[in-house]
Design a protein that fits this description.
about 130 residues, alpha+beta, 6-stranded antiparallel sheet, 6 strands, about 35% strand, binds acetyl coenzyme *A
Length: about 130
């Protein structure tokens, strides 16, 4: 299955979304709760692809909303393993905002999510067990 570093590279996970009005609030910007939902989802996919085990969210770190994300833009969520413990791993997520009709791209939201690998009894189990 490769080294930890190779698994971290291979499990980097990216999702693009168009910010349509159905996802925005009354300011015409992406609703914060929707951003959190998408971040938890991409972090979950990344942790799952990294460990190839059942994982559950145990905590979130600080989430920084640096800029509002207007309707009519594109966003890319990028999740990457930040650190690895015995049964847990921490995933860093950035949301990049892109204009549709120019190359302008900037980081607008960042945060971390921690996951624990669980066994069939829902108890913590080693996050990796088949390292080369
Ligand atoms: C994908 C989803 O939608 S999941 C839904 C939301 N999440 C859930 O429902 C999870 C509910 N929580 C639980 O079931 C339990 O807390 C479990 C199974 C995750 C952990 O059980 P616990 O007995 O509390 O875990 P334990 O104390 O042994 O710690 C396990 C790991 O979590 C880490 N951990 C514990 N608390 C935290 C925390 N607040 N933040 C970050 N890591 C933590 C520990 O350091 C340990 O990591 P390590 O082995 O890498 O050093």
């Amino acid at each position: 299955m490769g080294t930890i570093e190779e698994r971290i590279q291979k499990s980097e996970t990216r999702i693009f979304k168009a910010v349509f009005p159905s996802t925005t609030n009354h300011y015409d910007t992406l609703f914060g709760g929707t951003a959190l939902h998408l971040m938890d989802e991409v972090a979950f996919i990344c942790a799952t692809r990294f460990s190839r085990k059942k994982v559950v969210t145990i905590s979130t770190g600080q989430i920084d909303f640096k800029k509002a994300i207007p309707a009519g833009t594109l966003i890319e969520l990028v999740a990457k393993v930040d650190s690895v413990g015995r049964t847990s791993c921490k995933i860093h997520v950035d949301i990049f905002m892109e204009q549709m009709y120019s190359e302008l791209r900037e980081t607008v939201v960042s945060g971390t999510f921690s996951f624990v690998a669980v066994d069939e009894n829902k108890k913590p189990t080693p996050i990796l067990d088949d390292l080369d």
